[in-house]
Amino acid sequence: MAGDGDGRTASEAYDATPYLPGRGGLPAHRRAAAECRGCPLHRDATGTVFGRGAADARLMLVGEQPGDQEDREGVPFVGPAGRLLRRALEEAGIAEEDLYVTNAVKHFKFTRDETRKRRIHKAPSLRETLACRPWLMAELRLVRPELVVTLGATAGRALLGPSFRVGTDRGVPRPLPDAGNGTRVLATVHPSAVLRARDREEMYAGLVADLRTAVDAL
């Protein structure tokens, strides 16, 4: 049977579960995540980019995956999309120090351009997203936020299932499946989608409006 280049056959599931620590808080999980080999994305990425922020945050933001700059620095949302997000959070009246910020996938997936010098973002597959989901669920269990804001399709599908669509499901708080503690989820666009949009001002205003809805829901 054909393999995938990581010593696994095509029928073998990717799964981060064996790498999760049996006990401990966010620091223990961050250390363990650095050694995760639950899917092949670890091979090319600089390292695992775990979540950051307040361990008792009422609001958690979940993006797609680290970008090039995040991968190099080991911190989520420090690139261009992160800068736009910080501006939107400020306009919505959300203090960054009160948040916990993470991604659905903890390693950077990319291709290289023809010169081999630039690393170009490539969206993670559903299989890779599901493999990394145990880390995200552990963060939810440890932080216990009142509300989770998913940024973009990958984050939304990681928490709400493969039928999730940003265009139809955004902007409305709803119960978060599998959370078990009353946590709700609100979907919106990813800041990188705003940066790529032709109607950037309109999309940015929509992001800010959704973040203000999150504030009102707390």
TrEMBL record:
Domain Uracil-DNA glycosylase-like: residue ranges: 50-212
Q: Which SUPFAM superfamilies match?
A: Uracil-DNA glycosylase-like
Coiled coil (UniProt feature): none
Q: Which domain of life is it from?
A: Bacteria
Q: One MF term from GO for this chain? A: deaminated base DNA N-glycosylase activity
Q: Does the keyword Cytoplasm apply?
A: no
Q: List keywords of the entry alphabetically.
A: 4Fe-4S, DNA damage, DNA repair, Hydrolase, Iron, Iron-sulfur, Metal-binding
The record, for Pfam families, names: UDG
Instruction: Please give a single GO biological process term from the UniProt record.
Output: DNA repair
Region: Disordered, residue numbers: 1-27
The family line of this record is: Belongs to the uracil-DNA glycosylase (UDG) superfamily. Type 4 (UDGa) family.
Q: Which NCBIfam families match?
A: UDG_fam4, UDG_fam_dom
UniProt protein name = Type-4 uracil-DNA glycosylase
